[in-house]
Amino acid sequence: MSHATTTDVQDDRPRTTPEPRTGGLSSRSLPRWAPLGFAAVSLALGVGIGAAAGWHSRTQWGLLAALLFLAISYAATTAVENQRQAKDRLATSVVWVCFLAAVVPLASLLWTTVSRGAERLDGYFLTHSMAGVLGFEDTGGVYHALIGTLEQVGIATVISAPLGLLTAVYLVEYGKGSLAKAVTFFVDVMTGIPSIVAGLFILSIMLMAKIEPSGLMGALALTILMVPVVVRSTEEMLKLVPNELREASLALGIPKWRTILKVVLPTAIGGITTGVMLAIARIAGETAPIILLVFGSQLINTNPFSGAQSSLPFYIYEQYKVGEAASYDRAWAAALVLIAFVMILNLAARGIARWKAPRTGR
Amino acid sequence: MASTTPLDLPPAPPAPRGRPGSTGRAGDKIFIGLSRGSGILLLVVMASIAVFLSYRAVLAISKDEGNFLTTLDWNPAGDPPVFGIAVLLFGTVVSSVIAMVIAVPVAIGIALFISHYAPRKLAAPLGYVIDLLAAVPSIVYGIWGALVLVPYLEGLNLWLDQFFGWTYVFEKTEVGIPRSLFTVGILLAIMILPIVTSVSREVFLQVPKMNEEAALALGATRWEVIRLSVLPFGRSGIISASMLGLGRALGETMAVATVLSPSFIISLHVLDPGGGTFAQNIAAGFGEADEFGRDALIASGLVLFVLTLLVNGAARLIIARRKEYSGANA
Amino acid sequence: MAKRIDVGGLTAYYGSHKAIEDISMTVEPRSVTAFIGPSGCGKSTFLRTLNRMHEVTPGGRVEGKVLLDDEDLYGSGVDPVTVRRTVGMVFQRPNPFPTMSIFDNVAAGLRLNGSYRKNQLADIVEKSLRGANLWNEVKDRLNKPGSGLSGGQQQRLCIARAIAVEPDVLLMDEPCSALDPISTLAIEDLIGELKERFTIVIVTHNMQQAARVSDRTAFFNLAAVGKPGRLVEIDETERIFSNPSVQATEDYISGRFG
């Protein structure tokens, strides 16, 4: 039976379907290269019109080309296919244009930082402070700022990681009722606090207790920014630990706190580490609280508990404000160091997440 | 390590100890105490942020000879001290609105690109790169904005003035470098793009396969699938992503401080230099402020704090309501 | 309206993995054809090649042809969107659009395919809901969300949504597997009514269901573990269940494996 059908079908082979039947399945359509063609045409038009009108900024050329591209592909598709296909193509085009429009500034940002930063970045830059260096001189380095950043971020992490971890454990493992709800809500609120407000809060304490600026004060503000991030990410990770594991352990008569310490946390440790590292990466770039609380310094101060310090982001801002060619170079170089620091943390964190993920998922 | 620990359990139980129950109970108590304590500590910190800021703000505002809300000046060191937040509020809102108008649609576009349009091999690395970009510190955006973007936008500003000057908003009355609220808005848009994209993309990827297939099986084009199932499903996610971005834009300090050429005026000519934002004013004015001046800045910071709280709260409410009516004929 | 399906030498892949191999069969119009077979034998994959949903899955591709009244679904110049508009589908789990009302769910396909006047739309929605035996249960709450209905009602809503655009063929992928027995019965009755108007193909795990609702039954099986699925035989349902021509079919039906 089925074999008979097969031969029938194959006898039908000359199925050129020449005429696009109305109501049939096939319809007229633009060739596959059409979008590329439209893009080329509109790019040429955009550049042509832009150059003819004497617009200087290529931003406008690009914008014009993008608009032309949208218009041409919509019109052509409406003419050849139909309105639905045209809308579909318009959406596709818009999405591509969005993507390309965003790539340009973000790529420029990374490219500028890397290329300008590499000019000045060397061993000398990493190992010298700005002591005695005037703004226009092209010596000096970032060593004191590096120390400041590492110490401030280190202190913030030492406080935030356990605090955030414990809070997350409370929310996931114990939390019920209004206290847990309140904590959840305010952790969300804290996530949205602008860094400058966190800085002002510590500042208000300093004003009242007559405390002088120091690395520690900056670290406390960074802690306020870091804790909610750690809580959120740890919470997500703990929720991923299957309940069966907890029950298996509890059923063995193991108390809950040991279950959490020995079963739940180890299972989620990869994800938790990732979350903490991402949080570090986030606060390492914070500038505003440092301006208010650490005050900045040209000198090496290895004691975070007393006296002004610098930090990488603060250093960038400071060098930018000096406004000399040499200080701009230093700012870019420091920006490159900062971005490298943040990126390495990010990549390492994601590496850990990937490395640990299959095991926890088993 | 992680996976072997559960297997290590059998030797771990309290067998060798004399009274297994009691150690467990004491341990449990300590552990609960610690973790609950951390939660409470967070609440205390939150409360004290509000209390301390308000206290210092009241100290400052009580001596303000101007109107804190409407005065178009910031001179707490003067005699009498006069300062008001009108300019800062205006500048903060305008620059953030510009940033949102530009960033949100583009971010949704990119998120859709990554989740539904990009070639599959490209999609995962792209998402990765976007996440990395979200981690670029704002000060780096700041110096890039000041040293690269600002000169670059000069042409665009002239062009906008030439063709859209009649709208008043885009009229350029001062020649010169565009260290304006408009430029700040564009820079903020670029800054919040990665985070809004990243959150939206995650939501779009969570749309249940069966919802998309329902649309496909009705003969929907790709765009119609997105309109019928992806966007409705992702709506609350888009809103929360946008609010997250807005929160960042409102409180952004460094990018504004480096790019804007501040002045205490309110002008709807967004292309002209001038204006200010809360965060920028605090960072810029802090250096030369005395203790009273700092209190005045804290007062303005309190307003920023409340503003971001309102935005976050609104986002939360919207999402909660969406959830409630998630099936409604919206 | 109801059209005949001719499948010739159809092979479907997921990436480099061959899921089904060289399947040929004919599905008569205005009849119910049931696909049965053990899990993983490719019957659902095959069903999804009949409206080009298979290629939506990453890596999914197809060789061979599927003729719908002599027109090849996989011919060049054929728009998969048009194919899916012509060959409706109902899924394993009811999937109404969660943000839409009952009315909008049924009208969704119509709105995609053209503009209708309000009362026209209302007529078609009512007709489709009646066709899906759901009208009486929902006529007072058409503006309520479709996700508020029970599972069985949701599945009938999905059927109403599928038949509202008047497809030529209706594919059903285990439409009752997520439902309770009473809802299942309601759907089975409905299938009996719908076959007056549509060509229906149903995948089912439940052999009693195949026996109850279908006119013809196709038995699919894996050639061996790790090998692609294939069509063992297709025949009148009565014969398949009483006197199949292949031993494997009898073994499966009598419960010796699967």
From TrEMBL, chain B:
Annotated PANTHER family: PHOSPHATE TRANSPORT SYSTEM PERMEASE PROTEIN PST, PHOSPHATE TRANSPORT SYSTEM PERMEASE PROTEIN PSTC
Name of this chain's protein: Phosphate transport system permease protein
Membrane topology designation: Multi-pass membrane protein
Protein family per UniProt: Belongs to the binding-protein-dependent transport system permease family. CysTW subfamily.
PROSITE patterns recorded: ABC_TM1 (PS50928)
Signal peptide: none
Bilayer-crossing regions: 39-62, 82-114, 126-153, 180-200, 249-271, 296-319
Organism name: Streptomyces salyersiae
Keyword annotations from UniProtKB, A to Z: Cell membrane, Membrane, Phosphate transport, Transmembrane, Transmembrane helix, Transport
Function: Part of the binding-protein-dependent transport system for phosphate; probably responsible for the translocation of the substrate across the membrane.
Start and end residues of each stretch annotated as Disordered: 1-24
Subcellular location field: Cell membrane
All residue ranges annotated as the ABC transmembrane type-1 domain in the record: 89-315
Bias type Pro residues, positions: 8-17
SUPFAM superfamilies per record: MetI-like (SSF161098)
UniProt-listed Pfam families: BPD_transp_1
TrEMBL record, chain C:
Domain annotation ABC transporter: ranges: 5-247
InterPro entries according to UniProt: AAA+_ATPase (IPR003593), ABC_transporter-like_ATP-bd (IPR003439), ABC_transporter-like_CS (IPR017871), P-loop_NTPase (IPR027417), PstB-like (IPR005670)
CDD domains on file: ABC_PstB_phosphate_transporter
Keyword tags: ATP-binding, Nucleotide-binding, Translocase, Transport
Superkingdom, taxonomy of origin: Bacteria
GO-annotated molecular function: ATP binding
Pfam assignment, any one: ABC_tran
NCBIfam families: 3a0107s01c2
Protein name: Phosphate ABC transporter ATP-binding protein PstB
Encoding gene, per UniProt annotation: pstB
